[in-house]
Design goal:
The complex is a heterodimer of chains A (about 400) and B (about 140). Helices cover about 35% and strands about 20% of the residues of chain A. Chain A is α/β, with parallel strands linked by helices and about 400 residues long. Chain A has a domain of about 130 residues: Peroxisomal Thiolase, Chain A, domain 1. In chain A, helix 2 links the parallel strand 2 and strand 3. In chain A, helix 3 packs across helix 14. The longest helix of chain A has 16 residues. The relative contact order of chain A is 0.19. In chain B, a hairpin with a 4-residue loop joins strand 5 and strand 6. Chain B is globular. The mean pLDDT of chain B is about 95. A five-stranded mixed β-barrel of chain B has the order 4-5-6-8-7. By secondary structure, chain B is mostly beta strands. Chain B folds into two domains: about 50 residues, no CATH class; about 80 residues, OB fold (Dihydrolipoamide Acetyltransferase, E2P) (Beta Barrel), CATH 2.40.50.840. Classes of the chains: A alpha/beta (about 400), B mainly beta (about 140). Chains A and B meet through helix 4, helix 5, helix 6 and strand 5 of A and strand 4, strand 5 and strand 6 of B.
């Protein structure tokens, strides 16, 4: 297998982006990623697009070819990757594999999502259908917050995690989101703000939930030979990728206090990278809801099972703590454009590992120059963990 | 929704017809007031929701088992913000319960005071036909 590096990274402004269509939004991250790599679109041999809303949340049902034409990638190999909210990481894995296998030397992983061209209850409908439509949505109307609320109540009952603990995740991620110019929600919030926000699916309240966000993120990947030929100063290497999945029916799960897909994906990624979890300098974890971040700490091994709440209470996942997590604001404050998120996590890690955080107070101090992105699709239906090393 | 200049795309109605031919006994059972699980004739695995094909032993022969309905609630949530197609419904409670037979079921939980719903409590799974004539199942007080 060939070594693969990220040599260009771009991220659009996240938010309500009804000022642009899906192709224009993709261009906003493609342009800076190509400029970063000092390449042209026609140099790219293969494009993997992560997106989930095609034909449902936005108008193009087969968006890979549409976006590729708009951004100048016509003639490159094209594929659209879908792994629910982990589609961006699935696209990254696909682009990575095209190079690692020796098929191509330059590829792009692009995530783009438009979630705000339809009304909120329609978006809730599509997200709620993102499990097993026939058995768990059709008659029972599960929503995306409700999926995670089922886990939150079980975790609280078993480990004594409280609603305040959940709220602390939101407070932390908003604090960093405020310092991230691309974040959707740039506003500090207090524990009281979270606790007094309206209930969406008990015990989750409005401010426990990520916003509905538009955005794109783009990563240019290259083989080791091409990194050398192009004279790239700071390639960020893909050290290892792990993946797994869970059952479509939540009713077929063993328990509701952790995501087995996350446990397996993290373990496999660490094995592929030849590291243990204590080697990482920072992590991006999938905090679509506050409970998801606490569960992720436990599932990827930042702490023991049931101790996730303690990490957030003690401030161990802030800069200066044991392991900084979601220093870009996370899905919670930066926003969660579903198919983009994986690529955006990897964008943030790339910037951090190159020590190029846009605001210095947001730069994580690096010891081993290793970062991890944990990207969940659905409620542990899919999981990809990507480990990068400078 | 768009507040910027925009063009509305053409509207289509999408409502696929989902075949239930191979699990028909299950749906007929609901109409008769029974909830069935499927049991694989090859390896004996009991499954809910029911399946016509066994992913463990690849057998395509199943029998239908009338389940007791005795359940213990493993988790739940009260859904306040509803999706578009449930807009007309009042806030509802979704629960996952483990049946005496070992399989788990996700369904609405009705007939309890909201503050009385607790993890570990007992409930009973029953068949239900909605006022619109839809066959389904729900958890009710034991």
């Amino acid at each position: 297998m060939k070594k693969v590096a990220i040599i260009g990274a771009g991220n659009s402004k996240f938010g309500n982006r009804n000022d642009v269509n899906v192709s224009e939004l993709a261009f906003e991250s493609v342009k800076p990623s190509l400029e970063d790599a000092e390449l042209r679109a026609r140099d790219i041999e293969y494009l993997a697009l992560g997106t989930t809303g095609a034909g449902a949340l936005y108008e193009e049902i087969l968006p890979a070819v549409v976006v590729a034409e708009y951004c100048g990638f016509t003639e490159a190999g094209l594929i659209r990757c879908e792994a629910a909210c982990a589609s961006g990481s699935a696209a990254f894995f696909t682009a990575y594999s095209a190079i690692a296998s020796g098929k191509v030397d330059l590829a792009i992983a692009l995530g783009v999502e438009k979630m705000r061209q339809v009304d909120t209850s329609t978006t809730m409908e599509w997200m709620g259908r993102a499990g097993y439509y026939f058995w768990e949505f059709h008659n029972f109307g599960l929503t995306f917050p409700a999926y995670y609320a089922l886990y939150a109540n079980a975790h609280m009952a078993k480990y004594g995690t409280t609603e305040e603990d959940l709220a602390l995740v939101a407070v932390k991620n908003h604090k960093y989101g405020l310092k991230n110019p691309i974040a959707h929600l740039q506003k500090e919030i207090t524990l009281d703000d979270v606790m007094s926000s309206m209930v969406i699916a008990s015990p989750l309240k409005l401010l426990d939930c990520c916003p509905i966000t538009d955005g794109s993120a783009s990563l240019i990947l290259a083989s080791e030979e091409r990194v050398r030929d192009l004279g790239i100063d700071t390639p960020v290497w893909v050290a290892g990728i792990g993946y797994s999945s869970g059952t479509a029916n939540l009713s077929r799960r063993q328990d509701y206090v952790g995501l087995e897909a996350s446990v397996l994906a993290a373990r496999r990624a660490c094995r592929a990278a030849g590291i243990t979890i204590d080697h990482i300098d920072l992590a991006e974890v999938h905090d679509c809801f506050t409970i998801a971040e606490i569960i992720a700490y436990e599932d990827i091994g930042l702490c023991k099972k049931g101790e996730g709440a303690r990490l957030i209470r003690e401030g161990q996942t802030e800069i200066g703590g044991k392991i900084p997590v979601n220093i870009d604001g996370g899905l919670k404050a930066k926003g969660h454009p579903i198919g983009t998120t994986g690529c955006s996590m990897i964008y943030e890690l790339t910037k951090q590992l190159r020590e190029e955080a846009d605001e210095r107070s947001r730069q994580v101090p690096l010891r081993k120059y290793v970062g991890l992105a944990h990207n969940v699709g659905g409620t542990g239906h899919y999981c990809y963990v990507t480990i990068l090393k400078r | 929704m768009a507040s910027m200049p925009s063009i509305k795309s053409r509207e289509i109605r999408i409502a696929p017809e989902v075949p239930i031919n191979r699990t028909l006994r299950f749906w007929e059972g609901l109409d008769e007031g029974r909830v069935y699980a499927s049991k694989c004739k090859g390896c004996g695995q009991l499954r809910f929701p029911p399946v016509a094909d066994c992913p463990s032993c690849l057998s395509q022969e199943i029998e239908w088992v009338d389940i007791s309905g005795e359940a213990e609630i493993e988790t739940f949530t009260h859904v306040v913000a509803k999706p578009e197609s449930f807009k007309q419904d009042r806030a509802y409670t979704i629960a996952i319960g483990k049946l005496k037979e070992g399989v788990k079921v996700l369904a609405w939980l009705v007939g309890f005071k909201m503050t009385d719903v607790k993890i570990g409590m007992k409930a009973r799974l029953t068949a239900r036909t909605t006022p619109e004539g839809t066959s389904t199942y729900q958890f009710v007080p034991p």
